[in-house]
Design goal:
Chains A, B: Its main location: mitochondrion. Chains A, B: This is enoyl-[acyl-carrier-protein] reductase. Chains A, B: It holds the Pfam family ADH_zinc_N. Chains A, B: Belongs to the zinc-containing alcohol dehydrogenase family. Quinone oxidoreductase subfamily. Chains A, B: It is found in: Mitochondrion. The structure is a homodimer. Chain A is of the alpha/beta class. The first copy, chain A, has two domains: about 1-145 and about 325-355, Alpha-Beta Complex (Quinone Oxidoreductase, Chain A, domain 1), CATH 3.90.180.10; about 150-295, NAD(P)-binding Rossmann-like Domain (Rossmann fold, 3-Layer(aba) Sandwich). In chain A, about 35% of the residues lie in helices and about 20% in strands. In chain A, strands 3, 5, 6, 7, 8, 16 and 17 form a seven-stranded mixed sheet that branches. A six-stranded parallel sheet of chain A has the order 11-10-9-12-13-15, with helices on both faces. At the A-B interface, strand 14, helix 11 and strand 15 of A face strand 14, helix 11 and strand 15 of B.
Chain lengths: ~350, ~350
């Protein structure tokens, strides 16, 4: 997967050549390299919703490694719409019309996808009312467009893997991602302490600053994760009960090492490499290793649970993640820069641009 | 740990030279290579038990990779008796005298250790009555001497990691060990199906035959674990909900691959190498990875739970594992042959020899 993303970056010029000047949707008819299989289309959306449908006009769409994984077909098959399908998991849309039988949604409401693989890389769509969730307009556009891949994932990671209380410590890798910053924010709001490992990239210093401003207690580079100083920090703060592995690789071993006996290490995201842990960590410390997929969670959650989650995130005043904005027509230009655990974008539709002014 | 065991095998002649002709206990005063740190001793046991103590005379002692790990100090510190300490975790003894305040045990009862690191490599001992559990005399001597490392581990693995029902499939590696054969036997008694991977050693054919006789449904070599034929077998039997990783290494990846969505992979034993799993198995199939240590379980179990477990194993008619018998005086001779996931021995005391005739 990582090598696929690396190949994608190398292929970026080809992607730029393929981009249409005024597409209304990005579709693909088979799995494969995005530069090969994604078509920029100008097809019109179906005109009016039937009884249980809603017509929506997208304002912004998320663009991250999970979207690329879905096109490549390496995401575990979370998005199973028939081919050809519209790409994109995350997005925020405004309801433009509702079918006669639709309850709880009206024209003008903002909505986010209630399932994986809704197909958000398009101007407009007519979808089942069950496939979208109302989202308060107080949620910033960038946060709403990445809600199900960013803040919602962070909320689930902090809520579903053991009972954490104020004062407990959580350690995570991949702090530069939308999930990572939402973990910092949501944990701080609950009085939990966070230790965040961040990749040393060009914008490392500003990422550290941003995460500390969001309430992060300790934000250090992945390189520092294995240092003896780190052991002293954990001794002071208390060993974490929960570790969140957003990027895989060597730092995952440090996450396992930092955990308190009985702790849980959760791997999430579709683009992380394999995980190696010493058997002694499993047997000697009674660790539990789990995986989490937001797509799978959405697939099995009740509507009430999903609505409750969106409401909780809106109440928490979830901040905009650190994503770059790009015009929808230029979406394919940035695909080559998307990388696991960071490098996210929000593609803004023409109407979204107006709303954001 | 594996390399330590390999070094131990190479050092076997040195061990033989160090062995005393008539030791009554094997002790060590610091962690290290068994050939260097274990002393064959002829010290007499304390003479009479105080109020809450019992005097016991050992009949047989288990000798396996877990014992070696404890001497090396790589077992997570399960055996924490002060130095110098007597080696050996597993064993069966006859009670020869009880203190005035002891209830539930009387002279002539058979007992097994109720905690890790009791020190079973000795003729006799005076220990706290809380540190031993009565075991019915119907349990074969070899099974009793390895109960807490073999059959008890198997029982916990099948009982504590998800609700398994008759008809469910369990897959395991390390089928040649005492745990592996007890898993086959106990699972068959509950109507569960087993797929067992066995190392291809010199006695491979007889191991397969023995495990099939014990009720194993599919018993194949580790090499076959990754074959396409294996996938067909799992398709026929139903994907396993539980995988038991007794040996680590590459076959652990096949165990993870075989698991049904939502399944659990449990790593146990003190001598397995690290575990590598694709992140996609954790996120895409919602797998859970756990570790199990019988020593830790014994450390936190209530006496009622531990007694109940021994009774359940006796009721199940737990069979003798495939261990080699060796005279207690020759125990050090066989240490070099002990290997992770198999190669277990039972050292028989002089009194045990009479009982087994």
């Amino acid at each position: 997967m990582l090598s696929s993303l690396a190949a994608l970056r190398r292929a970026a010029p080809a992607l730029r050549r393929a981009a249409s000047s005024s597409p209304t949707a990005y579709t693909y008819a088979r799995h494969g390299h995005p530069s090969t299989v994604i078509t920029a289309s100008t097809a019109a959306a179906p005109s009016s919703p039937s009884s249980d449908q809603v017509a929506v006009s997208f304002l912004a769409a998320g663009v991250d490694a999970g979207d690329v994984a879905a096109v490549l077909g390496v995401d575990g098959g979370a998005g199973k719409a028939p081919f050809p399908r519209v790409a994109g998991h995350g997005g925020v849309a405004v309801v433009t019309a509702v079918g006669a039988g639709v309850k709880g949604l009206k024209a003008g409401d903002y909505v986010v996808p209630a399932k994986a693989g809704l197909g958000t890389w398009r101007h407009a769509a007519v979808v089942s009312s069950a496939d979208v969730l109302a989202v308060p307009k107080s949620v910033p556009l960038e946060a709403a467009a990445t809600l199900t891949s960013g803040a919602a994932t962070a909320l689930r990671l902090l809520s579903d893997f053991g009972a954490l209380a104020a004062g407990d410590t959580v350690v995570q890798s991949g702090g530069e991602s939308a999930v990572g910053s939402a973990v910092v924010q949501l944990a701080a709001a609950r009085g939990m302490k966070t230790v965040t490992f961040v990749k040393e990239s060009a914008d490392y210093a500003s990422t550290v600053e941003r995460l500390k401003s969001a309430g992060g207690d300790v934000v250090v580079s992945e390189t520092y994760a294995s240092s003896s100083g780190m052991r002293e920090i954990f001794a002071d703060m208390g060993a974490p009960k929960l570790a969140l592995n957003g990027t895989g690789g060597k730092v995952a071993t440090e996450l396992a090492r930092a955990l308190a006996p009985g702790g849980t290490l959760v791997t999430y995201g579709s683009a992380t490499p394999g995980l190696t842990v010493p058997a002694s960590a499993l047997t000697g410390k009674d660790l539990t290793l789990r995986g989490f997929s937001m797509e799978r969670w959405l697939g099995r959650a009740s509507r009430a649970d999903a609505e409750g989650m969106v409401a909780a995130l809106a109440d928490a005043g979830v901040a905009s993640p650190s994503v770059s904005k790009v015009k929808f027509g230029n979406l394919l230009d940035v695909l080559g820069n998307v990388r696991a655990g960071g490098g996210g974008y929000v593609a803004v539709m023409p109407e979204g641009e107006r709303l954001m002014m």
